[in-house]
Amino acid sequence: TPTVGVLALQGDVREHARSLVESGAVAVAVRRPEELDQVDALVIPGGESTTMWKLAVAFEMFDPIQQRVKAGMPAYGSCAGMIMLADRIEGGIEGQQTLGGLDMVVRRNAFGRQVDSFEYDLDLPGIQGFRAIFIRAPWVESVGNDVEVLARAGDRIVAVRQGPLLATSFHPELTGDARVHSYFVEMVREL
Ligand code: GLN
Q1: Could you give the CA distance from residue 108 to residue 143 in angstroms, rounded to a whole number?
Q2: Binding-site residue set for L-glutamine
Q3: Catalytic residues, which ones?
Q4: CA–CA separation, 100 vs 86, rounded Å?
Q5: pLDDT tens digit string along 97-113?
Q6: DSSP 8-state secondary structure symbol assigned to residue 183
Q7: What residue's CA is closest to ligand 1, atom 5?
Q8: What is the ipTM score, two decimals?
Q9: pLDDT per residue as tens digits for the range 131-159
Q10: Which of 33, 36, 93, 159 could form a disulfide with 168 if both were Cys (CB 3.0 to 4.6 A apart)?
Q11: Separation of 1 CA from ligand 1 center, angstroms?
């Protein structure tokens, strides 16, 4: 049984943990480097990527997470978490850093400029009709050759995978539908 951490600096920690448990993982909140050492994989929730970056630095978690990701730890970023896993971002604040790992450009608040939040039914590999909730959501502007596009909303890329890294623009923890978390836990089991 994989142990999956949920980065607990900000965001829907409890909801992510519930969906992970429903997917057959052990879920633990991760706030300190010692806790990160105990997990096989990490979920980075939504919230505010500028704040999450600053909190990660303040809690001395930024470098340890980046090192684990570089070493191949599976990670799943939702919304602000997607921004954190992007190698490059558009619309960031001055000096904003990401953990990186996913070879893509993500545009912050991209949908948010049009409408603050919305729901959209989309398909992912092996998942039909997932009700995705977008809140001031980013979209993926472009991806490198090794990035697999898993889902689009209209013509915008909203879910991607590159090896052990998964990211979605939307918040699957808010619907009580654990299929995206199950997809991630399955990735963790396979790696
Ligand atoms: N707009 C937020 C950001 O830029 C992300 C929104 C979210 O996580 N719901 O970090």
Answers
A1: 15
A2: 47-49, 108, 135-136
A3: 79, 171, 173
A4: 5
A5: 999 999 999 999 999 87
A6: H
A7: 80
A8: 0.94
A9: 999 999 999 999 999 999 999 999 999 99
A10: 159
A11: 31
Structural domain count of the chain: 1
State the pTM of this model: 0.97
* pLDDT over 90 (residue 115): no
CA of 52 to the centre of ligand 1 (A): 10
pLDDT at site 116: 86
Pocket residues: Cβ below 6 A from ligand 1: 46-49, 79-80, 83, 108-109, 135-136
Atom of ligand 1 nearest to the CA of 81: 8
Q: Which domain holds residue 175?
A: 3-190
Identify the band that residue 124 occupies on the pLDDT scale cut at 50, 70 and 90: very high
Q: Whose CA is nearest to atom 2 of ligand 1?
A: 48
What is the whole-number distance in angstroms between the Cα of residue 170 and the centre of ligand 1? Answer: 10
3-state secondary structure 39-91: CCEEEECCCCHHHHHHHHHHCCCHHHHHHHHHCCCCEEEECHHHHHHEEEEEC
Beta strands, E only, the chain: 3-7, 26-30, 41-44, 75-78, 86-90, 102-107, 117-124, 127-135, 139-143, 148-153, 156-162, 165-168
CATH for 48:
3.40.50.880
Confidence of residue 76 (pLDDT cuts 50, 70, 90): very high
